[in-house]
UniProtKB/TrEMBL annotation:
One Gene Ontology molecular-function label: ATP binding
Matches recorded under Pfam families: ABC_tran
Lineage: Bacteria, Pseudomonadati, Pseudomonadota, Betaproteobacteria, Burkholderiales
Keywords: ATP-binding, Cell membrane, Membrane, Nucleotide-binding, Transport
Protein name per the record: Sulfonate ABC transporter ATP-binding protein
Keyword field contains tRNA processing: no
Signal peptide coordinates: none
Keyword Metal-binding tagged: no
Length: 285
């Protein structure tokens, strides 16, 4: 209400999400039958979100990520990026997988990062090399630009894969359990480096994990998926958690609360003033 004039005040429309996953069901074939991986899953990702898909093994979270990437078509529902339906892979969505063998071994680190830039035909060799070196510097690997992948550790290979993805400047970076195969110390270091890189670049991230702790450390928003077939169980805000809060009583209590939600266990009621997460429970379709 415009109190001075006594007239209603127009309210700004909420910003359109960058990514809109609307009622998406995904299926795949086995020799004997069709299996439903997810059932009518919906969520929205906004610019600069660190959005986590969290759930137990087999809940369809990696399948959802591949569908966002354009590799798998939904059997029901639609996925939109910038308001346009996703129908095929594209350079606006780049995937970093869990495996360390994502890098052609005959190319140097710099060549690996520059290759998709050259393949897109948007950059000349000198421009591609300059951009490759820029992003290698951001992940702390400029000194290894002329090294070959077999000389790198697993964590270093993942940093090269991240640099290669970010060099393409995608609208959204898709990461499918990228640190799951690393040892615990390297995994924590990679989580720290990813967050530091996000603080600098502010890219939009869709990140798959089955680790509750990793979801709270890396994400600012978390979607909980039920066991197979994956359905939305809850969506959580987790802005207040990060490396600084790992191991704190509040962090541990939230970890337990998420575990109970994932596996449909009863959770004690909390007064609204004492909630550590803004939780919006959604009924499964």
């Amino acid at each position: 209400m415009n109190h001075a004039a006594g007239l209603p005040t127009a309210t700004a429309a909420p910003p359109r999400p960058l990514l809109d996953v609307d009622g998406v069901s995904l299926e795949y074939k086995t020799p004997g039958r069709r299996v439903r991986a997810t059932h009518r899953v919906g969520f929205q990702v906004h610019e600069s979100d660190r959005y986590i898909l969290l759930g137990p093994s087999g809940c369809g979270k990696s399948t959802l990520l591949k569908s966002v990437a354009g590799f798998i078509a939904p059997t029901e529902g639609v996925i939109r990026l910038d308001g346009n339906a996703v129908r095929e892979p594209g350079p606006d969505r780049i995937v970093v997988f869990q495996e360390f063998d994502q890098l052609p071994p005959w190319k140097t680190v710099r060549e690996n990062v520059a290759f998709p830039l050259l393949a897109s035909r948007k950059f000349k060799r000198r421009e591609a090399d300059a951009r490759a070196l820029h992003y290698l510097d951001k992940v702390g690997l400029s000194a290894f630009a002329d090294a070959y992948p077999h000389t790198l550790s697993g964590g270093m290979k993942q940093r090269v894969a991240i640099a290669r993805a970010l060099a393409m400047q995608p609208r959204i970076l898709l990461m499918d359990e990228p640190f799951a195969a690393l040892d615990a110390l390297t995994r924590r270091k990679m989580q720290e480096e990813l967050l530091a890189l996000w603080e600098e670049v502010r890219f939009t991230l869709l990140f798959v994990t089955h680790s509750i702790e990793e979801a709270l450390l890396v994400g600012n928003r978390i979607l909980l998926l039920s066991p197979h077939p994956g359905r939305v169980r809850a969506e959580l805000n987790a802005h207040q958690y990060g490396m600084h809060s790992a191991g704190s009583p509040a962090f541990q209590a939230t970890t337990q609360r998420i575990h109970d939600l994932l596996f449909d266990l009863p959770t004690p009621e909390e007064p609204a003033s004492d909630r550590h997460l803004a939780t919006a429970r959604r009924a499964a379709a």
